[in-house]
């Protein structure tokens, strides 16, 4: 009898252990409308329901190490921990809002095999990340990330076709977003993130956050209703491609993609969920998930507007000097910045030898320019080639400080494998020590990095204004997709403000006389619609001087906002954005190739009278995209404001409280 009791006890323990190892777990968003179902039956899978509708079927999560260890191997739960948070993040450098509610439920599962998984459910999305607790360093062969959608789904995706002999992971992260059914995407169709999926009238943006010491996540199709992750393998060999802008490219890749600390947390895999299109552009889950700031005192970081001369090829007119990359032209830009309320000017490519930052263009006297900028109260910003900056980092930063530079750009990175991701961190840390802001071009989106290192104030990673110089890719529809895709991963450097504007039928890409395929007012609206605490004006200042009222309005737009409201929006078609800084509101809108009549309900304003400056498409903007009108009114919260947007058009309303 005694023996029988022992046998029954052993059977009970085994059954209990198996039950603990093979559990079905659930995690709800704080408002209970989003549910994550987690299964640990031999494999770790998750599925997602929104309003009781399943939008993602069981999708596999796994990580495989070079030593044979894997998350899915011996998948036994050691412990579980739940927590709920309801706090507010006060953004050091506000982008779309200063106070960011951080409200979520979390489930952390520790497995006996030294792996763990952490899930978070927000009212506007879901995220998870893998963690490990190995004593020694590890080499990662693969991370399996799947998004298996339940019903027919389509996506706005920046598709890159894999081709033989071409490194698919070498990209500037600047592509058009194509609207495609998921099952039309094959294993040869790669996409960098964010990717926006449309399923069951719900929008799901797939991206990542807190990317550190790890390659960035690409997505690819598999000819089904599913997307899966791909990662750039570790570079085994590199070579330099020479030319005007030399850069390092990978000539051979290893059979693994990361070697890293054995005890760490890996990037968040994020699903931003919106029932209505207008809820997407203000979704800042990526920022919320990022590691808190590494810069305690950010008082030296100054958002503000900047000018750029490269896109228009310094093609000035009505000036008494020969325009070009020279001292006189930069002094002209400094005067322009001071006249119209800009904080700094960019000295873009050409001020020095791309291969040597100390080999300065002989047509430039940096001491004269630096002294003149200081006299006028304007800061200098400098372009650099990333490979050159990497070699001359310490000496270059010291020289920039001597010139009064507070912001630099580094360009032509074009990768996001593990060593290059670490390059971003090293450069940002060095710039922080020197009290310099940094912007990366030819770069992947920030993915929360701007919270951790707020001196990385903005990034490119977008097909923006410069493409007008050599292609017809930048359409108004493309401009209206960006707030719902690229912008979800952090601030973007689009460089709007072109003052030479044409209809799509009139447009030609002409170097030195760069025009947009949008109205003048859409170019103006971008300064409000796009998240960017350091927007760069790319228009021709000589034209700007001829239109002082327009430029004074543009120059008055703040950089960084206290509050943002999306009044109405539809992906790729139109967006109407209202933003507040202190007591003043700015409302801006953009439309695609369709003209629209809208009425703005101003009931969100506080009580009192507002002086309204309204800049909108002119009556002939459908034929001459430069056409606009500016009018002044007094408005209150009780008013509504009708606006007509021409095709490819836009508008801006500034409301200053009396």
If you had to describe this structure to a student in words, what would you say it looks like?
The chain is of the alpha+beta class. Among the domains are: 22-289, Beta-galactosidase, Chain A, domain 5 (Distorted Sandwich), CATH 2.70.98.10; 464-486 and 497-658, TIM Barrel (Alpha-Beta Barrel), CATH 3.20.20.70. Strands 1, 2, 3, 4, 9, 11, 13, 16, 17 and 20 form a 10-stranded antiparallel beta sheet that branches. Strands 5, 6, 7, 8, 10, 12, 14, 15, 21 and 22 form a 10-stranded antiparallel beta sheet that branches. The chain has a 7-stranded parallel beta sheet with strand order 30-29-28-27-24-23-31. Helix 3 (327-340) runs parallel beside helix 4 (366-376). The longest helix has 20 residues, at 2-21. The N and C termini lie far apart (91 Å).
User: Which spans have pLDDT < 50 for at least 5 consecutive residues?
Assistant: 1-21
Distance between the termini: 91 Å
Largest β sheet strand count, sense and barrel closure: 10 strands, antiparallel
Structure class: alpha+beta
Q: How much strand content do the residues show?
A: 35-45%
Tally the beta strands: 39
Radius of gyration: 26 Å
General shape: globular
Main attributes?
disordered N terminus; 658 residues; ten-stranded antiparallel β-sheet; Beta-galactosidase, Chain A, domain 5; alpha+beta; 39 strands; TIM Barrel
